[in-house]
Design brief:
227 residues; 0% strand; RINT1 protein
Length: 227
């Protein structure tokens, strides 16, 4: 239940050994005419240990949503730091390969959808759902975006950020399919609320729904260039 313990430990080992590997080991390799990068090989070896650990742990966590979600969150944070801080190469083995394996991946999709739907329930039942966060700042709030629409698009963006480093396009497309389902679900929810408001089509909530639709359509159009 604490994958961050070993993930953080590995990041510390990589960071703590970097200077020694660069100053002492790399010159020996360079002198021998080797193309090996000592730091990267050290990181690769430690990541292989993590892959073994994950392969052993994941089957025990698959049906505990809380623990499984926590593991995925921690792995994604680990991967982000591994690449951005320590210069790990995308061609090397990574935790995303383990998360892409069929049983694990399908579970990830399932819990991602479950928690996204829960988030949508809470955002639409919020008292501030149809109020713009920036209603008092005219130059920021030209589109008068209700809070629920902005939160929903942030939710989609966060999901993209979580799956964007998956190693294969087919897996990314399955996540895109989930996002399309969520967009359609949100559309249905907006339609249901709109039907309740048809008698007051110039009312506050009806206008907020139209603003939400316009905002979502505009943002999706902006995202159209994102392969």
């Amino acid at each position: 239940n604490k994958p961050e313990w070993y993930l953080t430990q590995v990041l510390m080992w990589i960071g703590n050994h970097a200077k020694f590997l660069d100053d002492k080991i790399q010159p020996i390799l360079d002198k021998a005419g080797s193309s090996v990068n000592a730091g990267l090989e050290f990181s690769r070896g430690l990541v292989m240990l993590i892959l073994e650990k994950l392969a052993a742990d994941i089957p025990c966590l698959l049906y505990d949503d809380t623990l499984f979600c926590h593991l995925v969150d921690e792995v994604l944070l680990f991967e982000r730091e591994l690449y951005s801080v320590h210069g790990y190469l995308s061609s090397f083995p990574s935790c995303m390969h383990i998360l892409s394996e069929e049983s694990c991946f399908q579970r990830w999709l399932t819990v991602e959808k479950k928690f996204a739907l829960q988030k949508m329930d809470s955002m639409l039942s919020s008292e501030a759902a149809w109020i713009s966060q920036y209603k008092d700042i005219t130059d920021v709030d030209e589109m008068k975006v209700p809070d629920c629409a902005e939160t929903f698009m942030t939710l989609l963006l966060v999901i993209t950020d979580r799956y964007k480093n998956l190693p294969t396009a087919s897996r990314k497309l399955q996540f895109l399919g989930l996002q399309k389902e969520l967009v359609d679900d949100f559309r249905i929810r907006l339609t249901q609320v709109m039907k309740e408001e048809t008698r007051a089509s110039l009312g506050f909530r009806y206008c907020a729904i139209l603003n939400a639709v316009n905002y979502i359509a505009t943002v999706l159009a902006d995202w159209a260039d994102n392969v």
